[in-house]
Write a structure and sequence with these properties.
By secondary structure, the chain is mainly alpha-helical. Helix content is 64%, strand content 0%.
Length: 107
């Protein structure tokens, strides 16, 4: 089973078609049929859409059995796509109190 077969299987399992999936994700018509040439970004979009890993799409196996809630997957994706300043601000917002105390001691 290859990437295209896995995507077809996921579509069937989720009551959709490859054509509908392509439209939802903004891909060109027939582009999934050429999945062997898909970019990592597109594979990631398909994986995120179905809540599976890119590794699953490529190999059929998940390295981790952890599923991320789609909301958090979107947050992670937005962080990855953000500019360095925004990423830095997010890291500052998410610092644990213990880390802040450590920084104060070091200052």
């Amino acid at each position: 089973m290859d990437v295209v077969d896995r995507i077809k299987m996921l579509c069937k399992k989720n009551g959709t078609t490859i054509s509908k999936l392509e439209k939802e994700l903004g891909f060109g018509n027939g582009s999934i049929a050429k999945a062997r040439d898909m970019t990592a970004k597109r594979l990631n979009e398909v994986a995120k859409h179905f809540g599976v890993s890119i590794n699953y799409l490529l190999t059929g196996e998940d390295l981790l059995e952890v599923r991320i809630d789609p909301f958090f997957a979107t947050l992670i994706q937005k962080y990855v796509e953000a500019d360095p300043v925004t990423q830095s601000n997010v890291r500052l917002l998410l610092k644990m109190p213990e880390e802040e105390q450590q920084e104060k001691r070091e200052a």
